[in-house]
Amino acid sequence: MRVLVTGGGGMLARDVVEACRTAGWTVTAVDRAGLDVTDPAACTRVVADAVGAGDLVVNTAAWTQVDAAEDAEPQAFAVNAVGAANVARAVAAVDARLVHVSTDYVFDGLADTPYAEDAPPAPRSAYGRTKAAGEWAVAALAPRHHIVRTAWLYGAGGSSFVRTMARLATERDTVNVVDDQRGQPTWTADLADAVVALVREDAAPGIYHGTSTGEATWYDLAREVFRLLGHDPDRVRPVGTDQYPTPAPRPAYSVLGHDRWRREGLPLLPRWDDALARAVHDVVGGPSA
């Protein structure tokens, strides 16, 4: 199988490339210089050159600057919605398959039980609105699609909360971390393996939630990073979101349900703390450390 990965310079994309190559697939990765997804002609050309019928495109290209999107929603929309539509249309034209990466920000974060895959989107931020629009475009334009929502990503290929906590553990006596936002820390390598499984098993088109199982707050995650790296976790102090106001509202509850994986007979991603134990030293020591 031939695979095209857009947004190829990103943290998740790097692990997707590695997982696809490990699966024995031929991979082409393009960063923004290689493909501007806001250019429909470029999408048509690059997709047609890289893949054909039955092949795969993994679209990780996105505007991910959540706070900046509040003042630049048209620009974020151009990438996250129009760009997704351009890629989806190009994929459909060659009868390839599409895995499109989305986000927990399509939900309002006000729930107290995990969001199901078919829960109605209700984004509260510009970033969430543009990603929700991208999901709609993919579903409308690419019949052979998987929309994979993820959240709280960390990996060896880029900056992340995990790497920041590891650095602060060596720089500060104590660290204040938010304890009233709850989600699912997810290792990009685990998500990349799940994407490969989704495609290899020819799972039904639709929406899947690509997050680790279990749940934690940012405070829980920071304490576990400290512990795994041999630091005293009690140096992490819990604070409320109100102590760190941001232009874009953060979801208080970002836990996503995984029923679709179960229905398709596919394994769930590992628990967040088990994944972190396997990942943390590689993540901390990875590129840009």
From TrEMBL:
One of its GO terms (molecular function) is dTDP-4-dehydrorhamnose reductase activity. GO terms for biological process: dTDP-rhamnose biosynthetic process. InterPro entries: dTDP_dehydrorham_reduct, NAD(P)-bd_dom_sf, RmlD-like-bd. Residues 1-282 form the RmlD-like substrate binding domain. GO terms for cellular component: cytosol. Transmembrane segments: none annotated. Pfam families: RmlD_sub_bind (PF04321). Keywords: NADP, Oxidoreductase. Its EC number is 1.1.1.133. Pathway: Carbohydrate biosynthesis; dTDP-L-rhamnose biosynthesis. Catalyzes the reduction of dTDP-6-deoxy-L-lyxo-4-hexulose to yield dTDP-L-rhamnose. Belongs to the dTDP-4-dehydrorhamnose reductase family. This is dTDP-4-dehydrorhamnose reductase. It comes from Lapillicoccus jejuensis. The lineage of its organism: Bacteria, Bacillati, Actinomycetota, Actinomycetes, Micrococcales.
